[in-house]
Amino acid sequence: IVYADDSRFEFIMLPRNVGKRKAQIAAISRSSGDLILNVDSDTTLASDVVSKLSQKMRDPAVGAVMGQLVASNQSDSWLTRLIDMEYWLACNEERAAQGRFGAVMCCCGPCAMYRRSAFVLLLDQYETQLYRGKPSDFGEDRHLTILMLSAGFRTEYVPSAIAATVVPDGLAAYLRQQLRWARSTFRDTLLGLHLLRGMNWYLTLDVVGQNAGPLLLALSVLAGLAQFALTGSVPWWTIGTIGSLTLIRCGVAAYRARQLRFLGFSLHTLMNVFLLLPVKA
């Protein structure tokens, strides 16, 4: 270990793999600073990430803040390139919009900073979360963010704090990741519904869109398949509507990012229809 002899660092060696959540709790229980930076083992931070995130945390009303995620292995395959664009959209559309109202709904695990005093107060709730009667082993970042919001803190997004993380380069790993995220989104959305009453109306619209959008897409696909099976006619209206909305979204992203590659994100709709929706269902 490079910093083994550096007195500024303390390394905690657990006797066995207890999962990310319990490892976090072990480290936080031994910490003493004002801020906690959570970084995944496969994530590389830009040199100014800590200073940019901590600058946002100068506001005592802010309990958590996240940086922008990019795929460090984006050039490996068509899938990693697609995921890199997916991350850009998730950060610079979804999180950026939520951040305008001080309520980023998920400060992503690969790069997130927390106020230690707030985290310590939430440790018991964080550690004892159950899923189907058993201790939860997924969705730590979203659950912790919801707990921060429930405690009255703001959660923010800093787009200039860049963190590069390794993304799945195979479909099987990607589908498993998406299934975990879908379960976490649904579970913790229900947990945070009570927060929406005191927030801007946009955040209610955002939550409804995130959860109802996939359902509407699935219903549209099923209706199209039923039309084809029962009448033998191609559901051109359904295909055209989904295709048009996809091109509009990708076109807006390409304009905002000043990168034509985002037009290729249209492929993600096909993955949604033929891979992600069946798996999540």
From TrEMBL:
Keyword line: Cell membrane, Glycosyltransferase, Membrane, Nodulation, Transferase, Transmembrane, Transmembrane helix
GO biological process: extracellular matrix assembly; hyaluronan biosynthetic process
Gene Ontology molecular function: hyaluronan synthase activity
Subcellular location: Cell membrane
Name the record gives this protein: N-acetylglucosaminyl transferase
NCBIfam families recorded: nodulat_NodC
SUPFAM superfamilies in the record: Nucleotide-diphospho-sugar transferases
Keyword Cell membrane in record: yes
Ranges annotated as spanning the membrane: 212-230, 236-255, 262-279
Pfam families: Chitin_synth_2
UniProt xrefs under InterPro entries: Chitooligosach_Synthase_NodC, Nucleotide-diphossugar_trans
GO cellular component terms given for this protein: plasma membrane
